[in-house]
Amino acid sequence: MTLRELQQQALQLPIRDRWQLVQTLLESLQQETNPALKKGNLSRLRGIAKGSGISGDKDIAADYITYLTEKYQ
Fold first, then answer.
1. Does the pTM of the predicted model rise above 0.85?
2. Residue 4 domain-assigned?
């Protein structure tokens, strides 16, 4: 069966069956293109790089100085 024949047959299906076919194909593509990425992995990381507030350059410099001072004591 060629792709064109498959497309023609799919278009003859009732709309509910076509939606199910689309959903099945999309899930298949998602699994094959990135099998290691599971649903929910990224949602757990949301906000991880978010700062605690807006800080200026002086605050960043002071924090870095404090970090280095503590590290090398």
1. no
2. yes
